[in-house]
Design goal:
With 125 residues, the chain is mainly beta. 0% of the residues lie in helices and 39% in strands. A 6-stranded mixed sheet has the order 1-2-3-5-8-11, with no helix packed on it. The chain has a 3-stranded parallel sheet with strand order 4-7-10, with no helix packed on it. It has a two-stranded parallel ribbon with strand order 6-9. The model is unreliable at 98-104 (pLDDT under 50).
Amino acid sequence: MKKFKLTKETMEMYGITFHRVEAVADFGSVKAGDKGGWVEKEENLNQEGDAWVYGNARVYGNAEVYGDAVVSGDAWVSGNAEVYGDAEVYGKLKLEAGLYFGFLFKNEKVQKIKNHDGTTLLWKK
């Protein structure tokens, strides 16, 4: 069963056609008829789980949002990036494969973690 459809409302940016998503079923906090954010293609947002793209957020390329993950605000997710589990990507964040951005407040500590592909991630403790 599908939880969303691509609407006829589109936007062109950088040669990519984005389609606004619309819920066709209730799931999580989303109700049937709610308009969401923008995706390049249906494969960018999984039809299962409570994953959703809100507002001005854009997901494109081979990127995928699934599980109970949320992309919102002015966030952009692209490349081969995967947003899943209970992850939330929001604000003016751009997430691409291998590139991670975030905020660190003065009193927060971070731990460096080596990723399986040799990159280093910073993890908030």
